[in-house]
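Key result, reporting period 2: structure in, sequence out.
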């Protein structure tokens, strides 16, 4: 297991280096020095500020040296002009006079809170509905469950969000209007109340995938010879369905879960914009609007990191579910 984990970690580091190189090239080399200065300086930029930005970014140096300074700054920190940027240094936003990593760290708790609740609700309810539909295959319960899942996954978040706000907040008063949550450790109730409506919206949309995928894989596994053999040997239904059949159906579910975790942890742009939540997704939008190139690049790097970490978690889950994966 340790060798398997080490191999995957090496692969993650290698891919992140490639992604960082491509990102750096797209943002700095492909755009040209003038465009880089213009975008890094922000919308309200004077000629004097542009010259300062040009010098601070070191655009007069060879491209490979610029990339090395950027990469080494992530691990050791660096100095950008007269501003110290401690490790991990992802750059400095000249448009807003902010350290990119500090800004991302400030926005990360909102995105993390949104992701945790949405993932728990999606998996619990979606997988539960899928297992129920598989066990009641062809019956009314199966048809109702799959129908509800199909209907719930048809509405986009920018339609479902305002609709839920109007119904559950303004008309019925059952839920609080979504806001940036307080600290979970300081106020768990307020933390959950602030994000309950976005969680429900994301659950409503994403549970369809988990329900349908769980049902289809469970139906396939339940038709396998080894499941029929276990039933013939007299094992209880709970043991056959949960311990054996459900475990065999987990691999594709874990794959989808890993993708969703990476997307949610990277910042759900539409969801955060719909509910006015100041997370990483909203930061990505404002950085584009403000022409803040260092912040855009920081968001891309963070998104790539969380996507790779989610894939690493999927690989580890595969190894735990199916020991044969460790030997491949």
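The corresponding designed sequence is given below.
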């Amino acid at each position: 297991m340790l060798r398997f984990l080490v191999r995957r970690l090496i692969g993650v580091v290698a891919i992140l280096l490639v992604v960082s190189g491509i990102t750096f090239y797209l943002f700095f080399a492909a755009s040209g020095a003038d465009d880089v200065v213009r975008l890094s300086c922000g919308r309200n930029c004077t000629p004097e500020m542009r010259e300062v930005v040009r010098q601070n970014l070191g655009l007069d140096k060879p491209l490979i040296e610029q990339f090395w300074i950027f990469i080494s700054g992530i691990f050791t920190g660096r100095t950008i002009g007269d501003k110290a940027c401690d490790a991990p240094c992802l750059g400095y936003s000249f448009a807003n006079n902010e350290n990119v990593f500090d800004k991302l760290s400030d926005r990360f708790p909102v995105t993390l809170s949104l992701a945790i609740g949405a993932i728990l609700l999606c998996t619990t309810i979606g997988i539960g509905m899928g297992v129920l539909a598989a066990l009641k295959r062809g019956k009314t319960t199966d048809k109702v469950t799959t129908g509800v899942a199909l209907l719930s996954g048809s509405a986009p978040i920018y339609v479902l969000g305002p609709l839920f706000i109007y119904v559950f907040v303004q008309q019925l008063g059952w839920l609080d209007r979504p806001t940036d949550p307080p600290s979970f450790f300081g106020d768990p109730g307020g933390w959950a109340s602030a994000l309950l409506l976005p969680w429900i919206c994301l659950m409503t949309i994403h549970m369809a995938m988990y329900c349908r995928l769980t049902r289809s894989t469970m139906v396939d596994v339940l038709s396998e010879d080894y499941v029929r053999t276990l039933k013939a040997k007299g094992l209880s239904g709970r043991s056959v369905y949960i311990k054996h059949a459900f475990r065999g159906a987990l691999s594709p579910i874990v794959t989808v879960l890993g993708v969703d975790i990476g997307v949610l942890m990277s910042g759900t742009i539409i969801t955060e914009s719909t509910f006015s939540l100041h997370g990483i997704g909203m930061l990505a939008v404002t950085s584009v609007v403000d022409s803040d190139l260092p912040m855009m690049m920081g968001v891309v790097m963070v998104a790539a990191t969380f996507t790779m970490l989610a894939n690493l978690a999927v690989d580890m889950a595969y190894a735990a579910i199916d020991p044969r994966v460790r030997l491949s």
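The CA atoms of residues 97 and 185 lie 30 Å apart. The beta strands are 78-80, 83-85, 92-93, 98-99. This case is discussed further under Risks and Mitigation.
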